Amino acid sequence: MVNVGILGATGMVGQRFIQLLDNHPDFEITALAASSRSAGKRYEDATTWYLDNEMPESVKDIIVKETDADAMDNDVDIVFSSLPTEFAAKVEKDFARDYVVASNASAHRMKKNIPLVIPEVNPEYLDMIDAQQKENNWDGFIVTNPNCSTIALTLSLKPIVDNFNVDAIRVSTMQAVSGAGYNGVPSMAIVDNLVPYIGNEEEKMESETLHLLGNYDGEKVSDADFKLSASCHRVPVIDGHTEAVFVELDDDFDINDVKDKMANFKALPQKLNLFSAPKNPVIVKEEIDRPQPRMDRNAGNGMSVSVGRLRKDKVFDNSFKYVLVGHNTIRGAAGASVLNAELINDKIL
Amino acid sequence: MVNVGILGATGMVGQRFIQLLDNHPDFEITALAASSRSAGKRYEDATTWYLDNEMPESVKDIIVKETDADAMDNDVDIVFSSLPTEFAAKVEKDFARDYVVASNASAHRMKKNIPLVIPEVNPEYLDMIDAQQKENNWDGFIVTNPNCSTIALTLSLKPIVDNFNVDAIRVSTMQAVSGAGYNGVPSMAIVDNLVPYIGNEEEKMESETLHLLGNYDGEKVSDADFKLSASCHRVPVIDGHTEAVFVELDDDFDINDVKDKMANFKALPQKLNLFSAPKNPVIVKEEIDRPQPRMDRNAGNGMSVSVGRLRKDKVFDNSFKYVLVGHNTIRGAAGASVLNAELINDKIL
Amino acid sequence: MVNVGILGATGMVGQRFIQLLDNHPDFEITALAASSRSAGKRYEDATTWYLDNEMPESVKDIIVKETDADAMDNDVDIVFSSLPTEFAAKVEKDFARDYVVASNASAHRMKKNIPLVIPEVNPEYLDMIDAQQKENNWDGFIVTNPNCSTIALTLSLKPIVDNFNVDAIRVSTMQAVSGAGYNGVPSMAIVDNLVPYIGNEEEKMESETLHLLGNYDGEKVSDADFKLSASCHRVPVIDGHTEAVFVELDDDFDINDVKDKMANFKALPQKLNLFSAPKNPVIVKEEIDRPQPRMDRNAGNGMSVSVGRLRKDKVFDNSFKYVLVGHNTIRGAAGASVLNAELINDKIL
Amino acid sequence: MVNVGILGATGMVGQRFIQLLDNHPDFEITALAASSRSAGKRYEDATTWYLDNEMPESVKDIIVKETDADAMDNDVDIVFSSLPTEFAAKVEKDFARDYVVASNASAHRMKKNIPLVIPEVNPEYLDMIDAQQKENNWDGFIVTNPNCSTIALTLSLKPIVDNFNVDAIRVSTMQAVSGAGYNGVPSMAIVDNLVPYIGNEEEKMESETLHLLGNYDGEKVSDADFKLSASCHRVPVIDGHTEAVFVELDDDFDINDVKDKMANFKALPQKLNLFSAPKNPVIVKEEIDRPQPRMDRNAGNGMSVSVGRLRKDKVFDNSFKYVLVGHNTIRGAAGASVLNAELINDKIL
Questions:
Q1: Which range of residues forms the domain containing residue D295?
Q2: B103 shares a domain with B17
Q3: Which of C50, C184, C192 sits opposite B238 (nearest CB)?
Q4: Which residue in C108, C211, C232, C241 is the catalytic one?
Q5: Which of C164, C104, C108 is nearest to C136 (CA)?
């Protein structure tokens, strides 16, 4: 068993880490870190548990640590980070001196030699790790996963990009409130309402997606060469981001071919049979009114992206439209980091 | 005063008609028609009132009639119709023999010589009426207004189309549940959820918008020559459709110029000072997170469309993005028919 | 394995039956019946699946039957019924000629010799079955479970009634929309709203609770001798009924004693280790703001009732107040029937 | 015109004050105070406007002041306070040296010689003001209004208490999220959920109601002599508190008599024809499923309480049950203070 720690363990994504790592075959939670307000307390006493299943017994008695690399247990190998961006920018590098840092924070995404990875999409970016360690003289390293709305979109695009010449993408999102953290969206802002703005979200989607679907030549990443524009909106849904996608290809195509490529998409995590890898990264729904977030967010234990309404665009040439749903705090956050760690554990550690 | 009747008077749009016509300076409700289940009863007894203001006293004692042209009072001049499509297809023509039919139903939209009109956009299509009357040998006529999501979009596009060369539009909607009628969307379908499909809605938006922004040469309508593709979704909002719009122009432009043209847009209803005409058909919001349906749907007494997040698209050349909110049962339904009737009353009757 | 059939298999409670019986150690679904519209189709083709986990593979290919006792397979032993009341009144007796009918319908509740049972509360009412069979000359019989809001309340009251002298109870409910069936509550009625009325619900709670907590002398049931008054309301929650309970005892008491009796309550299903029996029928929450429906409805796989805010009433003598949450379509419907069947299978079949 | 100021002018209740005082016939807003973060800015620049109608033009250019009695304009006569409790405890007394303070804060409620008043219920408590001024040597004074859930309940109880001998009341509330302030309830806490706890709310209801319905003998208040116990819960509704009330009288009664007394209840504000006084303080709804918060909160411009489901309790002797809805930020907060000020302006100033 690999011992793992969680930074930001009392927060919403921290709790998802605990949920996903409970009964994990390869990882055992041995350290939990949070703010100084929580440090020194039993995890159960420090935490208001937000999830709708029970807090696992195994973590209740763990004494919460300060978020400080020097305070981390030596026998921990991997730390999962769900720290706020600014704090992550400060402390994740300290942890990387000695530990593998699998981070959901945006602080170090797309920095030179720091892999931003979705295991089904660009596992080869992990090759950056050597350079990262040398450059910084670290024994550990940092690996990051993308923004929640980016992951779901990119997973669904991978089989398209692999099989067709994509020219242009527009995406309009309807995102769940959990993506903003427990206190992120006041109920006054969202009951009988929606908020058509999420800070920095469009920028992240537009840049991270091209980076993930680009090419790493052993030194640097060249972005994918299509264009992607996003409009991001918050809706009254607890979990599960929905995205309406408009795709323009260079050439004509058969919509059933697109459907087949999505439905049959398998990649390295499926081949390696990684514990958290869903059987189908992309599930194609045939019902006219699916996917829907409450019904489809838990597909593949929250690790699959459900795609539906895949239809030829009758207006624009060489174009099609679809709708996707992905679980934003599982596949889009904690589950993404865990799958990265499973891949690293299989291939590198 | 012009005497008016309402067909479908007990339904949701019917109730909006009553609300908007209460205390109207030119129109007086003298007849209410509904299904045979309601016919013969006092309106108050026949109706479960859905709106959050009180049923006007003036209609409570009106005895509901059958929806039958022969039963309509002779002294009525205009009948407003919010009949279901199939029933409207049958009976609106009967009413048109003797009455002006201002219809919110889709049954006769875009049929030859039947004007589909937004008074701020294409009032000249009313010129079709002569041909319509001659062709059918009617004393009355039918005028229709577009689908709710189309009206809001088209109003916001009019000042753009008038001032720039539009090439392509994609729109992704987040529509209120009232658009489906009182029993249209079960709560099981929408609490902590959204439904990414609305029957025929995309087709209506894609065709009606081009028709409205086209050109009527005295004989037929030529569609506007840009392309428009829609993806339509239902969200947990009572009233107020929100739409994310991606616009591509032929040429470069100044985003402030777009903003000015929208903010300063005035048209015939404003010049004629029609009673239901909003001072500003399009209101431009500067706040980063507006428009929002609960906050902005009632702007201009529900007759203005609020536009925000107007921003240059950094990814696509000659492109910009914005978000709009329009009240779907006021500007998008009953208010649209009433404004059509006011224009007709001013120009034709 | 006991072969079981489900009546009303395509509806919401029918789907919960399928979910709960999938992988059941003692029961195997071999027959599914629904309306004539569905009969003859594969279950997967006949059904719009409403639950947020996948339809079990095992039922997809079962051909749906008409709801007709003569059409039922002979090798079925138990039929679970989630039929609408009026239809249940007609057909459940036909099935009872040959089959054990475990019914969630209200049609035959509290009828002479038809046991209304919660296994933790009044398993001895099953003794009525002999008389029922003799009276009707049936080989099978009918057993019923109470209304959803009644079950949760009665489970929480059982340890109180067993240990204290209850004098009077008032209960005010906040009930989930799923209790009304998929199309029962329009979204227009419940978004930014609540509905303070549920047809017949107060009457059912007031009568069934006293019946369940009463005494069966081998011939008839004497109601419990306290008084209970209910006020029932629908709120925008998908699953999970919440109830605020005001209890008056005859004598003074220690609130911790009440808490202990609830927390330590175990009954026959726990002793028999029935498959669907929760470890704790009543879970006492200590957090100041729990139980909450989204967080607590799934406790004990949806079969436990969570109780919180257990506090002495400072105003009324010998009184206390608490709040409970129970899953209305699991413990309050399908799970209730399944647990009844498990008890019957263990004790009678 | 009386010049008035608003303390806490940028908050939710502060905005309601502005909305209600816009176009007021007797009061003119001339001063707005808020936190130091807002002080010195134009009101429009300092404020995120939360209400669904527009910010009145008349306040946009007012420069926000510090909340400091020394900084208040001398020509102001009345200051309305919606300050947070702790801050109100500190500064309202400073303002009372020179100004009439009509406070919605709980800081000074039920203190000796500080009237807690609902104009329809206990206007005679204003007689305390003399003693208050003498005791403190103030030129101004403080008058307070009750908690939002208390006001709605007490208004509905007044005609009952005046005409029947009330023995005991239990009330279970379903309260809107606006009652907790804009950021008070996270959306994660309330979508598909409810929270069965509101800090100090039950205590306020239980004490304030008896105080308001008590008797002031010129020196002190004797509480009403019935008993009242409350259970308070937060539900996903924007505005409008709903309360289920169980009433026990000493004697038998005719339910239609109760209904008549409520429906015909008029009091001093109606007699004086105060501007904000609703024609009917209590509106009795006959529909089986009313009152509902979204439909009924705006009755009487948000100043009436709607009552429905008035029914005899078939279980408890001499008892009845009903449901009420009142607008929590109008009648329950800003409107309550404004009506108090109108009464003071009419009778005292």
A1: 148-327
A2: yes
A3: C192
A4: C241
A5: C108
Residue of B nearest to D47 (CA): B287
| ipTM entry | 0.96
Q: How many domains does chain D have?
A: 2
CA distance to A304, B99, D35, D90, per residue, from D93 (Å):
61, 68, 18, 7
* Global confidence as pTM: 0.97
- Quote the CA–CA distance of C252 and C242 in Å, as a whole number: 27
Q: Kindly report the CA angle at D110 between D109 and D116, in degrees rounded to 5?
A: 70
Determine the Cα–Cα distance for residues B226 and D42; give it in Å rounded to an integer: 44
Residue C232 catalytic?
no
Residues C127, C73 within the same domain: yes
Q: For residue D190, which residues of chain A lie inside 8 Å, CB to CB?
A: 187, 191
**Active-site annotation holder among A148, A211, A232, A327:** A148
Contacts of D183 in chain A (CB under 8 A): 183, 186, 188
Taking residues D152-181, report their average pLDDT: 98
Residue B50 banded pLDDT, cuts 50, 70, 90? confident
CATH code at C184? 3.30.360.10
Asked if residues B277 and B293 have their Cβ atoms less than 8 Å apart, the reply is no
A338/A256 Cα distance (integer angstroms): 33
Q: Angle B54-B58-B64 (CA atoms, 0-180°, nearest 5)?
A: 100
Distance from CA of C12 to the nearest CA of D (A): 18
Which residue on chain A is closest to D187 by alpha carbon? A187
Looking at residue D339, what is its pLDDT?
98
Check residue C333 and report its DSSP letter: I
Residue D281 in contact with partner chain C when CB distance is under 8 A: no
pLDDT tens column, D49-72 = 989 888 999 999 999 999 999 999
Please report the pLDDT score of residue A53 as a whole number.
Answer: 85
Contacts of B256 (CB under 8 A, 6+ apart): none
**In 3D, which of D100, D283, D335, D129 has the Cα closest to residue D216?**
D129
Give the residue from D48, D188, D328 with the most A CB atoms within 10 Å of its CB, the best one to mutate: D188
Q: Does C15 touch chain B (CB under 8 A)?
A: no
CATH number at residue D117: 3.40.50.720
DSSP 3-state assignment of C326?
Answer: strand
Query: Quick check: C346 and C338 in contact, CB under 8 A?
Result: no
| pLDDT tens track for A102-153 | 999 999 999 999 999 999 999 999 999 999 999 999 999 999 999 999 999 9
D28-59 in b/e burial notation, b at 16+ Cβ within 10 A?
Answer: ebbbbbbbeebbeeebeebbebbebebbeeeb
D207 and D231: one domain? yes
Structure tokens at D4: 């008035």
The pLDDT of residue D349: 81
Same domain, yes or no: C204 and C64 = no
Q: Are residues B288 and B160 in the same domain?
A: yes
Domain shared by D248 and D201, yes or no: yes
Q: How far apart are CA C13 and CA C182, in angstroms?
A: 10
Q: How many CB atoms lie within 10 A of CB C349?
A: 11
Catalytic-role residue among A108, A211, A232, A241: A241
For residues A156 and A131, state if they share a domain: no
**What single string gives the DSSP state of each residue in A53-100?**
SPPPHHHHTPBPEES-GGGS-TT--EEEE---HHHHHHHHHHHHTTSE
Average pLDDT value over all residues in chain B: 97
pLDDT value for C28: 98
> What's the pLDDT at C344?
98
Regarding whether C231 and C135 lie in a shared domain, the answer is: no
Is the Cβ pair C246, D229 closer than 8 Å?
yes
Q: Which residues pair with B174 in a beta bridge?
A: B242
pLDDT band for position A335 (cuts 50, 70, 90): very high
